Amino acid sequence: MVQAFKALIDLGRSQEQPGVNDRSGLIEDMQNRYGTSGDDATRTLGNVVAESATLLYSVFGEKGSEGIREFFQRPEIVELCNVPLDSPRFNEACNELATRENAHWAAQAQANPDAPGPAAGAAFSGSFRNYIQQGVATVVRMHDRGDNENLASTVAGLNAFSRQTTTTAADRTQGSNPPPAAPTNPTGRTL
Question: What is the mean pLDDT of residues 86-108?
Answer without folding.
Answer: 96
